[in-house]
Amino acid sequence: MIRSRHAFTYAEAQSRIDDTSHTDDLTLGMRLLLSLSKKLKAARMAAGALNLASPEVKVLMDSEMSDPVDVQTKALLETNSLVEEFMLLANISVARRIYVAFNDTAMLRRHGAPPPTNFEALQKMLRVRRNIALDVSSSKALATSLDAAQVEGDPFFNTLARILATRCMLSAEYFPSGTLSQPDFRHYGLATDIYTHFTSPIRRYADVIVHRQLAAAIGYEDLHSSLRDRAGMEDVCRNINYRHRMGQMAGRASVEFFVGQSLKGKRSVEEAYVMRVLKNGFVVFVPRFTSFLIRLLLGLKCIDLDWRDWSM
To answer: Quick check: is 132 in a domain?
Structure first.
């Protein structure tokens, strides 16, 4: 049961928590939730969950013309982590409940362990360039070795290593529980034996299905026969996975487009990492744009770079 008492942005909630002059019940409750979320996160990390960098880019728009004028990285606060931990707990708890009720057709989400070959290029890069060993034998081993992937005097290096490790992962996917054996339910990145998406029914159809299954599992309402049919659920999951991939690609393309538009006609001096040298150019990673890789072709002068050679 949720009793909503106030609406906060992440920044407003963080400010309220940090301000010691606030001692009201609402603020004390948020501080307690923050303390609990830190314990939940510590337990996940101890179990082998991965802390992979996936910073979001925020494109600043001109208030009058609605044109992109600058790019920023969204700052993550403790309150972001607070909400994330309880969302994960809700998703895991609901996954367990609907699997008990519908062990053949529960809508679950898995994240398979990536094959070691996916990391070979990154392992070579780290070993040759920085004398850093990346252990990919398990999610726990990977998490530990990523924590140790530090370079003195370069605080962004660890973030970059995590971003590159993220790109070696397999994609998570939805599936009906009856199509896989229980050990294959595991979510590699979160280090949990079962998982689903429950917390965003306003934007994901998978969550709508999970809400319907949970409602039936607790006796709130009947479940439509289509959500008890495994073959039908396989078709639904296949379509959702496809649409999810298309949505991700559209989102990334949108970021690339608007970052490009914000740089158009400007001279920008940025620190960057050379990621790959091509026959007709090179690919650089610009920390200020985080998730944005820029492909520069020879003869195209659009950005000045302070080079740190990290190419293979």
So the answer is: no
Q: In total, how many domains does the chain have?
A: 1
Q: What is the pTM of this model?
A: 0.85
**H-run or E-run covering 92:** helix 78-101
User: Considering only 28-42, 46-60, 196-210, 233-247, which range has the smallest mean pLDDT?
Assistant: 46-60
CB neighbours (10 Å) of residue 10? 17
pLDDT band at 72 (very low <50, low <70, confident <90, very high): low
Q: Is the pLDDT of residue 296 over 90?
A: no
Rounded Cα gap, residues 132 and 53, in angstroms: 18
**Amino acid identity at 157:** F
Residue 294 lies inside a defined structural domain of this protein: yes
Q: 173-176 and 107-110 as β-strands: parallel, antiparallel, unpaired?
A: antiparallel
Average pLDDT over residues 86-96: 97
Distance of alpha carbon 99 from alpha carbon 226, whole angstroms? 16
Residue 291 lies in a domain: yes
pLDDT tens track for 109-158: 999 999 999 999 999 989 988 899 999 999 999 999 999 999 888 888 88
Name beta bridge partners: 176: 107
Q: Of 84, 50, 76, whose CA–CA distance to 162 is shortest?
A: 50
User: Which structural domain range is residue 308 located in?
Assistant: 266-312
Asked whether residue 153 is assigned to any structural domain, the reply reads no
Sign of the CA dihedral running 150, 136, 287, 131: positive
Residue 165 has phi, psi (to 5 degrees) of -65, -35
Residue 263 to residue 265: CA distance in whole angstroms: 6
38 contact partners, CB below 8 Å, separation of at least 6: 81
What does residue 4 show for φ and ψ, rounded to 5 degrees? Answer: -75, 125
Strand-strand pairing, 173-176 and 57-61: unpaired
